[in-house]
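G., before I forget:
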Amino acid sequence: MWLLKPAAGLTGVLVLLSLLGLATCRPAGEDTQISFYYWKSNFKLTDAEQLALDTLKVSRLYVKFLDVDVDAEGRAYPKAAIRFDGQVPDGIDITPCVFITNRTFQSKQAGPVALADKVWDFLQQICKKQGLNPSEYQFDCDWTASTREPYFTFLQQIRKRIGPASLSATIRLHQYSNPQQTGLPPVDRGTLMYYNMGDIEDKAETNSILNNEKGAPYLQAPPYPLKLDLALPLFSWALLYRLGKLQAIINLPGEEVLELAADLEKIGPGLYQVKQNFYFEANYLNTGDRLRFEIPAAEELERAADMLHKIQNRSGNIIFYHLDEAALQNFPPGFLRQLAGHSGS
Amino acid sequence: MLATLAVSHWPQAAKACGPYDPSYHFFNLFVPEWVLSEEYSPAFYTSNPFWSNIWGEQDYSDDNLAEWQAFFKNEVNNEALLRVLKGTYSETYGDMSRDGLINYHLFRESKLPAGQVEASKRYLLLALDIEQLADVQRNWWDYNPDTLNTEQSNSLIGRVETALQQEKFPFLKERYAFQLIKSLRYANQLQKALEAYQTYFGKSQSKSIIRYWALDHIAGIELQQGKDGQAYYHFLTVFKECRSRRSSAYYSFNITSEADWQATYALCQTPDDKALMHFLRGARDEALGLHDMEQVFGLLGNHEWLRALMAREINKLESANFEYYSERPIEQLLKNLDENGTLLLNQEQADYAGQLLRFTNTLYYNYRDDPFWALAKAYLEFLNGQFNTANLTLHQAGQMTGAFDKAKREIALAILILKKEDFSPEEEDHIAREIIEVFEDEDVQFFTERNNEEFILDLLAHRARQRGEDLLAAFFARESIWMMQDNPSHPAVDALIDFIRRPQHSQLELLALKHYMGGSQKWLAFNMNLANELKAFENQALDIKGTLLMRDPAKLADALAIFESLPPDFDFTIDVNPFNMSINDCIHPEDCNLKTSATYTRNALVRKLIEMKGIAEQTNSSTDYYLLGNAYYNMTYFGPAWKAMNYFRSGSQYAGFYDCAQALAFYEKAVRYAPDRESAARACFMAAKAEQNLFFKSMSEKERNPDDYWWGKYEIAGWGDEQEYTQYQQDIRNSGYRKYFEKLRQEYKDTKYYQRAVKECKYFEYYTTRM
């Protein structure tokens, strides 16, 4: 049974109404194509994840196939390549995604043309092994003005290789609001990432995953010259601060585990302090460390969806980041359909 | 053997640390390499993830080589054996195949018994085959690891089992056993691998490295099977007993739960084992080390592991606060001091430093004869802003030697400079002496790679700036005379001359001045010959002054007066005639055969310029104005006689004297007073050249884009791009720098010189045909 946890911040009534698809006067997302990112390095869907796909009639998954980074000598190399321990469900199109660090394009060693060859070949090895014939490829890079030229060259090279498939790229808010400076990637479509907008390094930040006060000004920008899918966050985490600086990010589906830890003292909403050294979620925490739990609140997600609904040139597609059984516990399908209705066409 | 191939351990490596980090990014006064054994270098702190894998290089892989050579009684070629064992490139054998080396080279000169040679060859060749079993991606960009199928694996394992049964040499037999365990693990026959270990090593008292290499695999298997406590205990054992597998054992000893920690702890036989567990955990980047230090102390008392952990914790604080790539590192430190009363960025760090200090005090008072704790105590007090207490600690520590003495004096020096904004003459002399001695800088190089010296110099530069002594601050900031030669100004040169001419200098001022001026004498000799050295510096500065004056034709007489006051060796020959003109500029005179029989010394040239200028002004001589224009063009960056007014010529950007305004002014007069149209056309063309260079000057100074270097955008080599070149030409014209090309076209089209210019000058040809 789907449960909306208190962290999501909706009342039981709203939950029920959402589940029934009756809570809104907007279209309930039926016209909007809902997709998910799958960002784990081992592809194996749980029953609950599969159920969510079925319930939401998801037909496309954006699956991270690999990361690309550079080594100490500046040579590009693949990291965290995906393994398929489970089958791709029938009726699901896989869009291979590649995350490339910005420093890869800062490196003189990693020429964009040669890199495109390597990445493309690597993707084809995976696709061939899994019998996939993707109709779309997506690239994710937080490029800047100084790296746009090699990144865009890279994308152009990829385009030459993908045949009839389409090419998409993630667009971060700073890129969305300032295409004059960061440029327009040579792709068919963009995916506007409406999350990770706060400063996670800042121990005084309230919610770095979704903060509409920070996100809204970016959306005032003139229409982006690319058709845009929209991506919204469904993840949560605890940020670990040590000696005043961010030390680690601990993926946590809910706050309960923090509340129950005997060696943690709650010092504020979502804030905890370590009383003595102990192991927590495979991390060794030290006395004095601080943890801040962050999750996008349901009402903030709704506000975000509302605002995104108003931007021009959106495709109507929404992609949730990311497909994970634990995260889905916080955001049941009815709520997600509701969000899709807010942000859809 | 060949187990030096990259064994893929489970779990994979986390972040680590290393002994040598060329990317040191912080002022590192507490240098662990100085005060700790190299053996513990893997635990030294580095915050750069790029260097987190360097422990592998400290893997003592030569231990395996040594065991083999002992078996071979040093009868085989070491280089060939190394290539066989490690597969690394060899100077002599290059990339020769390793099986070829084994069959034909390795034993060629050896006097080993034939039976041992054959047995060894059999083993080495089989071990090479087993490498194929490893789940290793030999090429990063291969998605599918290059491994054997089950049938091939089983065949190989069968060969190893047979060879193991038949082998007579205990040395090789033990290695076959290792190969069997490894092969079984890679073939995912885990239970068999565990049984093989029990059979061949379980009851053995052997301390051979190969036994621990096998145990390393066993530990990996145990982790895969969920026997975490046992696995971690075995990794601990490997770390302790086998330095050639210490690296991988360290990476694998990555306990992530209290249950695993307790299970491992329960297996520890001795306080040493338990303390080692704390050391390994405390040395991880993911932990603060204090708690584990306390445990190590409780178990073993004062111990090298404790010192290594403390050094890490101190280095962490340095890394967080002494970042020298930050915008204003010294200013930030002093801001911290003002705001927090410590050199640390925030209260959390200050609290932790306080906790470390309390722990250190315990060690210090219990082990007064260990200089490490005195140094750690003083340094933590220093970080905490307790400068007087730190000084007292250093004083009470008494005489130290070697690296400890060096570290002690560095800290004392930093404290002295941080405590005061101004120094007495005695203190300045002391600081100078310490810089020379502590940093072994007899040549006053102000080594930039020795970051501690940089730290002290940066502190001094900051103090000098605070006192308003900008020139001295520049000296400490490692600026040098060539910067002034490259870009001189009258106030800067005058300030330098005044500084040199001061009646008295402190030793610190002299030290800074010596570095700035680049004196070649060692410090002692420099001081003994001080008057002459200062005179030489003064002459150097005056030479710059004269050169600077020369740039203004109205001040040629002043320049000459200075040049004539200098020793004769300051004058030099200019081996091209600066009065000659050329249609196209020549960057390298030696390539253009510009040398002329008529040459000038610099002083003679200045005299000639004064003379010509006088004649030109008195008679309105177009020829003299034209020749003056040529000289003032040729003496700029753009001309072959650039040495007359420049000390350097950059190959990448306009630098030095590249202002053609004087030349243009002379050419304008040459046009105005020209006796005929040909002369006027010639002067007009040269005026256009000077005008174009003024455009370059303007662009390079005003419109330089860091992402798109101006000189790269407009360099002549870039003419291949028609669109860019057109834009370039339009830019020049639209900016108003084509007046003289236009004048030439409008007024002198009928001259022979016009025809020559169109033929020889591509710029002008483009202008006349396309614009």
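Confidence is low (pLDDT under 50) at residues 1-23, 50-57, 705-718 of chain B. Chain B touches chain A through 29 residues (CB under 8 Å).

More on Monday.
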